[in-house]
Design a protein that fits this description.
Helix content: 25-40%
Strand content: 15-25%
Radius of gyration: 30 Å
CATH topology of the largest domain: formyl-coa transferase, domain 3
Largest sheet: 8 strands, mixed
Number of helices: 18
Structural class: alpha+beta
CATH superfamily of the largest domain: MutL, C-terminal domain, dimerisation subdomain
Strand order of the largest sheet: 5-4-3-6-2-1-7-8
Length: 624
């Protein structure tokens, strides 16, 4: 039939390149890994036009002579392995020999290199679309410089799928941040659009150095509250958020196996298992987990871009990470230990297992663990007024919290503010069954009311979240968001990749009431915010940090992202659990909840109230 044809060599190259090179960040990742594998101690990165025009990586590593330079651009040309069996003792990032070949196939690639040998000559090779354009001598400067220009110039369809500059720049900086966190012994200079983003000097390649590098990238607020632990037996170092210093999203979680950034569910699940009972569901731990293993104990050759790994003994690795993270968290409540120090964990002697070798060359900071000392305050119990109870929806209304002279005026004002009930039953929410009599507050979290249908318990946090959500969403829909300018701008320091995430949303955020300006590569200034939320400096900074984690591509699902943003904002400023509310405030909350389109659930789907009818109470007390 003649339907099956063999593709041309040019098409084969482009298709193969697509498996490895998705976007500019994929190029930078491969070039940085090559630089580190070459033994470089200093690396400089230059990015122009979000990587479309130029990605340049210069290092002071071993370098290559002209013969190796020529061979390096061929497919499956590598110095890392000789046979497939060498994968079991791999100690480098690269090994397939596909990166330079794939990059050259979809760009204009120039490589200049020279070894450190006395009298060595420099060499340069230029390629376009996978074809060699020229080979020349170059100045004998030890190290290697790789320049990738006009990425995807010959595959315009791939170019169209790239995101905006800010989004691609965020991914590029994220790749650089991961590499810098994995290799504290290497100094990095990162420049984007001619401006320096990071200047990271090389530090000691031990637990103390890892902590220093983390502070430089994650920022002082996150890193200061991190707890560290070293498991010498299983060659593991972890830094995790203390339970009081969690973050809103999972974008600050990094896992490294033999210093390779990886995505591994086993490691993430072990971390979350250690946090059971120590975190609320809307907060996530920031973490850095470094694991050194025998290369034969895991498989990195399961993903074209080597993002995922599989462990031979998943349960063994899970247990080691779980115990090490757990030991760090115990120190958060142990006497005499502060966040930021590093403890050395000692496991009982067991036969070496799951390929994790004994720890080498990691600094000891603290010996053993202090005795756990957890102080729990006695619960306050029920907060039920002893006086007459105010009623919403009837004429009887008094307060047991405000002074007697102010009772009548305050309650009358609350009732005057309450609009008359709709004339038709259908216009009122189905759950609204007046009259409502306020009984009190339980655990400073739940509001208790007697209603015409029985006992009503309202989660004050979920209710306020729903109220603010709908009020803010209404303002956004009408385009009349009320904005409060700040007397002094609030400065928020973030990882450079997070700043880029916010920059791409600047125009939309301004319409939503937030005036945010980039102030340097790692800082933003907030000049205004919606007056509905009454932000303080700390809560506004916390909001921006949350914002940087949830914002995605502005060209995708704008309405969905808007709703997520609104819900998160409302949650940040909603009445938190353990806040004491007076009766007038409780009545106002109930009144505002009645006005909501969906007062039964918070924006995330949790219930705002539960109703226990009188018949159910009677049944439980066996009075029926």
């Amino acid at each position: 039939m003649g339907d099956i044809k063999i593709l041309s060599e040019d098409d084969i190259k482009k298709i193969a390149a697509g498996e490895v090179i998705e976007r500019p960040a994929s190029v930078l990742k491969e070039l940085l890994e090559n630089a580190v594998d070459s033994g470089a101690r200093n690396v400089r990165v230059d990015i122009e036009d979000a990587g479309r025009r130029l990605i340049r990586v210069n290092d002071d590593g071993r370098g290559m002579d002209s013969a190796d330079l020529r061979a390096a651009c061929h497919r499956h040309a590598t110095s890392k392995i000789r046979t497939f069996a060498d994968l079991d003792k791999l100690d480098t990032f690269g090994f397939r020999g596909e990166a330079l070949f794939s990059i050259a196939a979809v760009s204009k690639l120039s490589i200049t290199s020279c070894t450190h040998e006395p009298g060595a000559r420099g060499a340069n090779i230029r390629m376009e679309g996978g074809k060699t354009v020229s080979e020349n001598e170059a100045p004998p400067v030890p190290g290697t410089t790789m320049e990738v220009r006009d990425l995807f110039f010959n595959t315009p369809a791939r170019l169209k799928f790239l995101k905006g500059d800010a989004a691609e720049r965020a991914r590029l900086l994220g790749a650089a941040e991961e590499c810098a966190l994995a290799n504290p012994g290497v100094g990095f200079q990162i420049y984007a659009e001619g401006k320096r983003v990071y200047s990271l000097p090389a530090v000691a390649d031990n637990a103390a150095g890892l902590k220093t590098r983390a502070a430089e990238i994650l920022g002082p607020k996150v890193s200061k509250g991190m707890l560290g632990a070293v498991n010498e037996k299983f060659n593991m170092t972890v830094f995790v958020s203390s339970p009081s210093n969690m973050v809103p999203k999972r974008n600050l979680q990094f896992f490294f196996v033999n210093r390779r950034p990886v995505s591994a569910k086993t490691l993430a699940q072990a971390v979350y298992k250690a946090y059971e009972g120590r975190r609320s569901s809307n907060l996530q731990p920031a973490c850095l987990v470094y694991l050194e293993m025998d290369p034969a104990a895991f498989d990195v050759n399961v993903h074209p871009q080597k993002k995922e790994v599989r462990f031979i003994d998943e349960s063994g690795v899970f247990g080691a990470v779980y115990r090490t993270v757990g030991s760090a968290l115990l120190r958060a409540v142990a006497e005499g230990h502060e966040a930021g120090s590093v403890a050395v964990m000692r496991e009982p002697e067991e036969p070496e297992q799951y390929g994790i070798a004994p720890q080498k060359n990691l600094a000891r900071a603290n010996e053993g663990f202090a005795k756990e000392d957890i102080l729990k305050p006695e619960p306050d119990g029920y907060k039920i007024s002893q006086n007459a109870y105010p009623v919403l929806g009837s004429e009887e209304s008094v307060s047991s919290v405000i002074p007697p002279a102010e009772k009548i005026a305050a309650v009358k004002k609350a009732l005057q503010d309450e609009p008359a009930l709709p004339s038709s039953e259908e216009a009122a929410p189905a759950w609204w069954t007046p009259p409502y009599r306020y009984l009190g507050q339980f655990e400073q979290s739940y509001l208790l009311f007697e209603s015409g249908a029985g006992l009503v318990v309202i989660d004050q946090h979920a209710a306020q979240e729903r109220i603010l959500f709908e009020q803010y969403l209404s303002q956004l829909a009408c385009g009349n968001t009320v904005v409060q300018r700040l007397m002094l701008p609030v400065s928020v320091e973030l990882p450079a990749s997070s700043v880029e995430n916010i920059v791409q949303w600047k125009d939309w955020l301004e319409k939503a009431g937030f005036e945010i300006e980039q102030f340097g590569p790692r800082t933003v200034l907030v000049h205004a915010a919606p007056s509905l939320f009454d932000f303080g400096d700390d809560s506004l900074a916390a909001f921006v940090e949350s914002l940087s984690a949830v914002l995605g591509d502005p060209e995708k699902c704008a309405e969905d992202v808007r709703r997520e943003l609104v819900a998160m904002t409302a949650c940040k400023k909603a009445v938190k659990a353990k806040d004491l509310l007076g009766e007038t405030e409780a009545l106002r909350l109930l009144r505002d909840l009645k006005r909501c389109e969906n007062g039964l659930n918070c924006p995330h789907g949790r219930p705002t109230m539960i109703l226990m009818p009188e018949t159910e109470l009677a049944r439980r007390f066996r009075r029926t």
